Recover the amino acids of this structure.
């Protein structure tokens, strides 16, 4: 296992509560979760555009559209829903309860995706130990709510 990948995943994961908190504060000042999500995605899009321009990857929207199915583009919609919901929930549940519940949902859906090899993921059976791991995450949700 590549430890640098795990460290990168940890760093990315640490950004989630910070992003939710920043976006929630933004939402209180500009009219709610959806306008705040819009600003978040706009700034993120600009940052990515600058990166693509500087790195010169050869990426074009036309090329991407020609090489993919329409539903590959739905990830942006899912991201917008996710960010909008976290902006709404962060001040209502708190970071720990919100993220513990999100992580449980991610683990449960990931278990299903892996088990069936959906979206071209390699098949990894939902073994008793993997199911126990997801159940323990659910137990964590219950514990952080108390």
């Amino acid at each position: 296992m590549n430890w640098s990948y795990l460290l990168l995943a940890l760093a990315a994961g640490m950004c989630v509560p910070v992003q939710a908190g920043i976006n929630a504060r933004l939402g209180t000042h500009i009219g709610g979760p959806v306008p705040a999500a819009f600003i978040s995605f706009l700034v993120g899009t600009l940052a990515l555009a600058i990166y693509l321009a500087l790195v010169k990857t050869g990426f074009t929207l036309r090329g991407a559209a020609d090489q993919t199915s329409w539903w590959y583009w739905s990830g942006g919609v899912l991201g917008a829903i996710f960010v909008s919901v976290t902006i709404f929930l962060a001040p209502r549940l708190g970071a720990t309860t919100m993220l513990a519940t999100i992580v449980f949902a991610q683990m449960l859906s990931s278990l299903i995706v892996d088990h069936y090899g959906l979206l071209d993921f390699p098949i990894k059976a939902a073994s008793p130990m993997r199911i126990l791991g997801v159940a323990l995450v659910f137990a964590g949700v219950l514990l952080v709510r108390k």
Summary: The CA atoms of residues 68 and 144 lie 41 Å apart.
